[in-house]
Amino acid sequence: MNLENLIKENVVKAISELYEGTVAESAVQVQKTRKEFEGDVTVVVFPFLRTSRKSPEMTGEDLGKYLVERVDVVSDFNVVKGFLNLVINEAHWIGVLNDANANPEYGYTKVTEESPLAMIEYSSPNTNKPLHLGHIRNNLLGFSISEILKANGYKVVKTNIVNDRGIHICKSMVAWQKWGEGATPESTGKKGDHLVGDFYVKFDKEYKKEIAELMEQGMSKEEAEAEAPSIKDAREMLRKWEAKDPEVYELWRNMNQWVYDGFDVTYKKMGVDFDKIYYESDTYLVGKDEVMKGLDQGLFVKHEDGSVWADLESEGLDQKILLRSDGTSVYMTQDIGTAKLRFNDYSIDKMVYVVGNEQNYHFQVLSILLDKLGFKWGKDLYHFSYGMVELPQGKMKSREGTVVDADDLMQEMIDVARTTSQELGKLEGYTEEQAEATFEKIALGALKYFILKVDPRKNMLFNPEESIDFNGNTGPFIQYTYARIQSVLRKAKDAGIEVPEAAPVVTPSAKEIELLKNISRFPVAIADAGKDYSPAIIANYCYELVKEFNQFYHGHAMLKEENEEVRAFRLVLANCVGKVVENGMKLLGILVPERM
RNA sequence: GGUCCUGUAGCUCAGCUGGAUAGAGCAACAGCCUUCUAAGCUGUGGGUCCCAGGUUCGAGUCCUGGCAGGAUCACCA
Q1: Distance A562 CA to B40 C1' (A)
Q2: Are residues A423 and A382 in the same domain?
Q3: Rounded to an integer, what distance in angstroms lies between the CA atom of residue A213 and that of residue A235?
Q4: Residue with nearest Cα to nucleotide B4 C1'
Q5: CATH assignment of the domain containing A140
Q6: How far is the CA of A168 from the C1' of B60 (A)?
Q7: Nearest nucleotide by C1' from A321 CA?
Q8: Final residue of a domain: which of A390, A425, A460?
Q9: Same domain for A479 and A366
Q10: Which structural domain, as residue segments, surrounds residue A523?
């Protein structure tokens, strides 16, 4: 049993024995003792005064005496105002260390056959342009939350719904046909997603020009926007696509394939992956069917013009369109179709959608609709809603060219990592491949940590200069601590000093106990992160742990410690911190280097 | 206008279901490498926790009302 529950349980017992009263275990507050007081954990006694009918001080004294007497691990106590500070004995902390070391998956909950299945949808790109910084936040959050749910004992299926059809891709196709001159990724040496993105931009430029010309000829803005030749071509292209025109279909297949090949490179660099990919071109018709079925069941209504609507006014929402008057599907229809396919493919207990907060309303509606249509997870689907990424100069706008491209950003960070690392000259003896792999770990560690350490719900500011900083509360600082530990362990091995499986019982210093307390909090951090869907909790935990370790490192010799037991204890401790850091960072999708 | 989210140091962010004197990093300044990796450590300065009420032993945290910023309310996705 963990310490907190043990104490809670005994406080409840104490109150019933001392005062013949009852309090719920949940009413017992156990927290870390603040630095300025003596003790390890603190019980707040205020909630018990009504039962004890004594002053806070006396109640604290009563409980303290009881706990010291009855609970092995409690060795001493003191009472300050209404706070009962308990001193926990060394054996307990060393026990924490040995438990953590004995279990290679310390802090993780095992996944079994009976574990619930969570499906996480993330990434979900359009296929008309390359990934940018906004997608990076999405992908990192999606991947990390998948790892965190796994660590909390879920079977996890990572999924991606690729937005591969629609007017947006037709725009790129039209532009390619008109101005592409047969360009391919091979002929231009350009990454496929960037090539297709260039044509999307080209389309927009020409379209704008046409609008301006038409307006000069006296058209209104709305008219010009509808009548410009380019947009008409794109619409025509979409019609042909829906009619499965062979030529259009082949072009569509080709251009999408270029994009997928490009995305694969980006995903790989980013270190994210998927177990199952769905394509909108496969799901939109399924969605239509579901809506028609719902219509038959009387869940939806058909208007005179033929459009189909869901009336959600009884839920406090509006009317929502599900099929246009021409029978084509909208965004919501596709999401219903995708849900249907997933429902058939997996036995889903928890569905998580990692999608930006601009779609909060969409998911509120989707949840209700899926529930009406009989998906058991519809009602409590989780929209993992995250905030936007802003730049120091404001929002990113693709049309104004202020987007930060994902590939460029990662490459830039790798370049900076290389330069910094070479200046510090710590990778001597590494082959070029080993060194490059390390630069990449550091660069991506910096980027991922920078993004994941902030609360996902909040909009975040991405300052390129700060993100590339490797000092302070950063990914590389945490990686550095890991590398430091590995360096010591390597040297121990070289010197023939053994790191034992179990730590000998020594009297730890205050700083060592602080470290052990931090180690004991790892399982709690994982549980909290799972409950709140928050990689930030893991990031902050890792930071606190390594900060504590670095303080320990400066004040405590390991290899040079003469007392063999103390030396062994410290090596076990360092080894354990390294392991926890590695496993913690893994939950963020961040790799740790052996040297840096 | 309706709904939802956010507001903490100059800047970027923590602060667990309400608990003791609100914490980090960056930036500034001052120290620490002949000693296990200085991408580190130590110290100094820096706050009306947006404002006003309320709930109670106790509020950055909960409630109400403001203020400011953002999102959304399409036969766009």
Answers
A1: 24
A2: no
A3: 20
A4: A360
A5: 3.40.50.620
A6: 46
A7: B75
A8: A390
A9: no
A10: 407-586
* C-alpha–C-alpha distance, residues A56 and A555, integer Å: 38
Mark residues 413-432 of chain A whose C-beta is closer than 7 A to nucleic acid strand B. Answer: 417, 420-421, 424, 426
Q: How many domains does chain A have?
A: 3
Note whether A376 and A481 are same-domain residues: no
Q: Is residue A288 part of a domain?
A: yes
The residue whose two tokens read 């906004």 is: A134
Amino acid at A303: H
d(CA A216, CA A209): 11
Q: Tell me the helix, strand and coil percentages in chain A, rounded to 5.
A: 60, 10, 30
One pLDDT digit (tens) per residue for chain A, 596 residues: 689 999 999 999 999 999 988 888 888 999 999 888 889 999 999 999 988 889 999 999 999 999 999 999 999 999 998 899 999 999 999 999 999 999 999 999 999 999 999 999 999 999 999 999 999 999 999 999 999 999 999 999 999 999 999 899 999 999 999 999 999 999 999 999 999 999 999 999 999 999 999 999 988 888 888 889 999 999 999 999 989 999 999 999 999 999 999 999 999 999 999 999 999 999 999 999 999 999 999 999 999 999 999 998 888 788 899 999 888 889 999 999 999 999 999 999 999 999 999 999 999 999 999 999 998 889 889 999 999 999 888 888 776 777 899 999 999 999 999 999 999 988 988 999 999 999 999 999 999 999 999 999 999 999 988 899 999 999 999 999 999 999 999 999 999 998 998 999 899 999 999 999 999 999 999 999 999 999 999 999 999 999 999 999 999 999 999 999 999 999 999 999 999 999 999 999 999 999 99
Q: Is residue A401 part of a domain?
A: no
- What's the residue count for chain A? 596
Specify whether the CB–CB gap between A559 and A495 falls below 8 A: yes
Among left, alpha and beta (phi > 0; psi -120 to 50; other), residue A557 is beta
The ipTM is: 0.95
* A364 domain residue, yes or no: yes
Task: Give the C-alpha separation, A476 to A166, whole Å.
Answer: 41
Nearest-nucleotide field for A524 (CA, C1'): B16
Regarding whether A187 and A160 lie in a shared domain, the answer is yes
Cα(A494)–Cα(A489) distance, integer angstroms: 9
Examine the fold and report which residue of A346, A365, A390 is the final residue of a domain before the chain moves on: A390
Whether the model clears a pTM of 0.90, i.e. scores above it, the answer is: yes
Residues A385 and A426 in one domain: no
Does residue A113 lie within any of the structural domains?
no
**CB–CB of A21/A51 below 8 Å?**
yes
The answer to whether A528 CB is within 7 Å of strand B is yes
**Distance between the alpha carbon (CA) of A186 and the C1' atom of B24, Å:** 49
Strand B and A442 CB separated by under 7 Å: yes
What's the CATH code of the domain at A573?
Answer: 1.10.730.10
Q: Is the CB of A42 under 7 A from strand B?
A: yes
